[in-house]
């Protein structure tokens, strides 16, 4: 009874992007099952500024920080609230959950299901379908499996009726009661003896059952929001979003292999017909093309991804997509809606990780193996911040097989010499940089050039290869990455499977490295990016290695984007450098001699890449290939962007089908398969070795 008392107090409420957070006085009316708020405590006797019905609501602590939580009503309305600290948040969340459960169970008791009544998932016309009849003998399992029936061709998306949600809530309440009984039975076991409350299998069962119930509650929340959005008519009459229409079976749609019905060819824009009429890639020239850096111009494109408007407007579309996904589902073959896309290809995103070429070039200037390893770690940790365009989590275009991206950077030699010592805000052992002297009388440019090329070498699985080199400094990096994405409920996880290799030919050293996982969090509200996982950097020749941990934020407390790491000498197991901080903010490096250095990533100078103009690019270079999608997104025309994107994907499917029928293997252009990896066809270590051999033969 104590927990059912009314509570009140001030909380911060998120209004919108313009107004932001505002203090409001909240009252939890347990008897009525309402959460009300007022401008301040003095206006409590007036009409509430807002009211939420808590029956059927879902109360969710946020993973953004330890103070924020959301109240998602069955109507689809949402309050995003913030308490003063974690303890106050827990107090409000627990009281709201108790009130919500009480009133939700009351609805279930007052509205018992009619066992003899058949029902239809569709609003009309499909009640006579044998596959959609509910029989008195049906149990909860068969009820939850109703969603797996194939929908008749041409029918609209099914609408869940309100009383069906009550049925689901009642079954979940029963399951929650059984789960509580299970937990109680386990906890009542003796602490010692043959079967104890600390038995590993029982602890696993306890944890799994709790996780299962949490997952079911999240799924039920999605159903509530989906129903509410459909009731409100979020999609205007006549709107057609192709993947919402069940023109093909869901399974085939996710396989990304079935042909779709498109408007007549004459009705398509010329740019779409052009995209579909490009010849089969293997019939194009697959000979590697030497890109002249002098043809490349400084890139003036600056597409920051800070616009949330489309995401907010299309929430019902996101909800519908989420309702069709299963936890752990591989999203590689799922066609995602266009409005969540960045205005660049994944291949170009890899290039943006090279936006600090001065730090990359400076690696080889380290006078000892220890310095060079530390320099590489510094460069590695500073690369992720610029690789993200803004704080909003959006997805780059999935590269088309055979797609390529070329660019380069020019760094004045004087800038490299000074930046290596002055970019950072404290003294360090790395401040002295020695550059090779220019040969007198030799007309060499006063800048270094770093060249970059990337290619999509495989479609299933999606594998990208990329390569960068600085010939003057005799260094290059080669990497291949397989992006595996999974649906994790309210977030999406992307595992970067693959390996990179940095070669410092001047020192005869090779550094292998891996990449962290990436997560798109809070995909129903304000999506944001988080990195997680452990990566390793190793140099077999010198015996130095680095271990770096990207920490995901814990449920309670903790900081966002935290990273820690250490560099050590493997032979002696001596730690020579430790690093901590945030990968998108400030990093702190502490060296074995006691000195400390801080790197403020927000103040690091970014070198703009150089890219050939569109008219000089090949048909399968990223910017020319996706130019119509990008232009439509910039203009805010989502429908046109979707049409152009669909045309590219349809062409890729047709080409893949043709290759399968003719048993024609795909021909890569710049990368060759070696073992489990992909290597650039003309890496610097091969050309340098060949040149040395030729010189010896001449002598």
From TrEMBL:
CDD domains: PH_ORP10_ORP11. Residues 117-137 have a biased composition (Polar residues). Keywords: Acetylation, Endosome, Golgi apparatus, Lipid transport, Lipid-binding, Membrane, Phosphoprotein, Transport. GO terms for cellular component: cytosol; Golgi apparatus; late endosome membrane. Residues 104-137 are annotated as: Disordered. Gene3D superfamilies: 1.10.287.2720, 2.40.160.120, 3.30.70.3490, Pleckstrin-homology domain (PH domain)/Phosphotyrosine-binding domain (PTB). Residues 4-101 form the PH domain. Heterodimer with OSBPL9. Plays a role in regulating ADIPOQ and FABP4 levels in differentiating adipocytes and is also involved in regulation of adipocyte triglyceride storage. Weakly binds 25-hydroxycholesterol. Interacts with OSBPL9 to function as lipid transfer proteins. This is Oxysterol-binding protein.
């Amino acid at each position: 009874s104590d927990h059912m008392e009314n509570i009140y107090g001030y909380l911060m409420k998120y209004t919108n992007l313009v107004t932001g957070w505002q203090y409001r006085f909240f009252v939890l009316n347990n008897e009525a099952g309402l959460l009300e708020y007022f401008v301040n405590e003095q206006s409590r006797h007036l009409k509430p500024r807002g009211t939420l019905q808590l029956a059927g609501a879902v109360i969710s602590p946020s993973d953004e920080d330890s103070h924020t939580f959301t109240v998602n009503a069955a109507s689809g309305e949402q309050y995003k609230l913030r308490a003063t600290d974690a303890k106050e948040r827990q107090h409000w969340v627990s009281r709201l959950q108790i009130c919500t459960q009480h009133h939700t169970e009351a609805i279930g008791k007052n509205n018992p299901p009619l066992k003899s009544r058949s029902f239809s998932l569709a609003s009309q016309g499909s009640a006579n379908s044998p596959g959609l009849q509910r029989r008195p003998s049906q149990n909860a399992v068969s009820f939850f499996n109703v969603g797996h029936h194939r929908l008749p061709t041409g029918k609209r998306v099914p609408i869940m009726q309100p009383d069906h949600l009550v049925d689901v809530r009642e079954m979940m309440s029963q399951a929650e009661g059984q789960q509580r009984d299970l937990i109680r039975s386990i906890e009542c076991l003796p602490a010692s003896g043959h079967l104890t409350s600390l038995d590993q299998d029982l602890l696993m069962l306890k944890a799994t059952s709790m996780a299962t119930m949490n997952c079911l509650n999240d799924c039920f929340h999605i159903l509530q929001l989906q129903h509410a959005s459909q009731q409100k008519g979020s999609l205007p009459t006549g709107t057609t979003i192709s993947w919402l229409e069940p023109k093909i079976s869901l399974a085939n749609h996710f396989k990304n292999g079935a042909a779709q019905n498109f408007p007549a060819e004459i009705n398509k824009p010329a740019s779409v017909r052009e995209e579909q009429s490009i010849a089969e890639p293997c019939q194009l020239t697959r000979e590697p093309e030497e890109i002249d850096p002098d043809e490349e111009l400084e890139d003036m494109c600056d597409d920051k991804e800070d616009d949330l408007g489309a995401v907010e407007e299309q929430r019902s579309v996101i909800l519908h997509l989420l309702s069709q996904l299963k936890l752990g589902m591989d999203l590689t073959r799922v066609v995602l809606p266009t409005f969540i896309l960045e205005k660049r290809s994944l291949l170009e995103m890899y290039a943006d990780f090279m936006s600090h070429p001065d730090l990359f070039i400076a690696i080889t200037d380290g006078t000892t193996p220890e310095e060079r390893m530390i320099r590489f770690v510094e460069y590695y940790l500073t690369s992720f911040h610029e690789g993200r365009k803004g704080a909003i989590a959006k997805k780059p275009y999935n590269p088309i097989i055979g797609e390529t991206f070329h660019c380069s950077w020019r760094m004045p030699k004087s800038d490299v010499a000074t930046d290596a010592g002055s970019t950072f805000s404290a003294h360090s052992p790395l401040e002295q940089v020695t550059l090779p002297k220019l040969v007198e009388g030799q007309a060499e440019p006063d800048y270094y050039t770093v060249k970059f090329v990337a290619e999509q070498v495989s479609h299933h699985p999606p594998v990208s290869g990329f390569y960068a080199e600085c010939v003057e400094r005799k260094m290059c990096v080669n990497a291949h990455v397989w992006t595996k994405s999974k649906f994790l409920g309210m977030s999406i996880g992307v595992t970067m499977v693959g390996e990179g290799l940095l070669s410092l030919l001047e020192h005869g050293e090779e550094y292998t490295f891996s990449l962290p996982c990436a997560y798109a969090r809070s995909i129903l509200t304000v999506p944001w990016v988080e990195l997680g996982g452990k990566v390793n950097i190793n140099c077999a020749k010198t015996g130095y290695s680095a271990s770096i941990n990207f920490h995901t934020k814990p449920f309670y407390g903790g900081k966002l984007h935290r990273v820690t790491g250490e560099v050590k000498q493997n032979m002696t197991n001596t730690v020579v450098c430790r690093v901590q901080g945030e990968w998108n903010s400030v990093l702190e490096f502490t060296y074995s001699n006691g000195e400390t250095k801080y790197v403020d990533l927000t103040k690091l100078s970014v070198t703009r890449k150089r890219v050939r103009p569109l008219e000089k690019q090949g048909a399968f270079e990223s910017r020319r290939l996706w130019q119509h999608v990008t232009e439509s997104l910039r203009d805010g025309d989502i429908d046109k962007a979707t049409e152009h994107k669909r045309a590219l994907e349809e062409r890729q499917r047709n080409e893949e089908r043709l290759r399968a029928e003719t048993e024609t293997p795909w021909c890569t252009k710049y990368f060759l398969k070696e073992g489990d990896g992909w290597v650039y066809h003309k890496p610097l270590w091969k050309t340098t070795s060949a040149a040395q051999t030729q010189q010896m033969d001449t002598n």
